[in-house]
Design a protein that fits this description.
Strand 4, helix 3 and strand 5 form a beta-alpha-beta unit. The relative contact order is 0.20. This protein has one domain: Flavodoxin domain (Rossmann fold). The chain has 4 helices and 6 strands; from the N terminus they run E-H-E-E-H-E-H-E-E-H. The chain has 152 residues and is an alpha/beta fold.
Length: 152
């Protein structure tokens, strides 16, 4: 099983989270591809796919620059994304009232397009976890268990 890891990052910390996920997946025999500049044209949404989205929030709840065009591509799709299953990791700062707002908005968008979320959205607060990738141990094993229940 291959997992497409999609990264939306402004300052680069989210990229570390994405890279830290790969050993967990490899340990259970899964492969993964990281997309630092996600583009819907390189992902075949007509086929069954699993995405793991690592998404930081920028500014007043905005998407990172490298993710905005991808969000627009998703919004413009006319068909259903029912063959897509996804996990979502939001990274943000709880000092702001828009904490992990980009992840929340993207989750809503994918669900509107009929994609299936695996597990709960995992929000990492950089105030309490200055090295966000260290928090993966709390969530990734649960998400991998959700993956194992898929028949893809």
């Amino acid at each position: 099983m291959n997992i497409e890891i999609l990264v939306g990052s402004t300052l680069g910390g989210t990229e570390y989270v994405a890279e830290a996920i790969q050993p967990y997946l490899e340990e259970v025999g899964m492969t993964s591809t990281i997309h630092f500049n996600p583009d819907l044209n390189s992902l075949s949404i007509e086929d069954e796919q699993i995405w793991l989205i690592c998404l930081s929030t920028h500014g007043a709840g905005d998407y990172p620059e490298n993710f905005k065009a991808f969000v627009e591509q998703i919004k413009q799709t006319t068909g259903s994304l029912s063959k897509l299953s996804f996990g979502l990791i939001g990274i943000g700062d709880s000092n702001y009232d828009t904490f992990c707002f980009a992840a929340k908005r993207f989750d809503e968008l994918l669900l509107e397009k009929e994609a299936t979320r695996l597990g709960d959205v995992f929000n990492i607060d950089v105030v309490n976890s200055p090295i966000p990738e260290d928090r993966l141990v709390d969530w990734i094993p649960l998400w991998i268990k959700d993956l194992s229940n898929l028949a893809i």
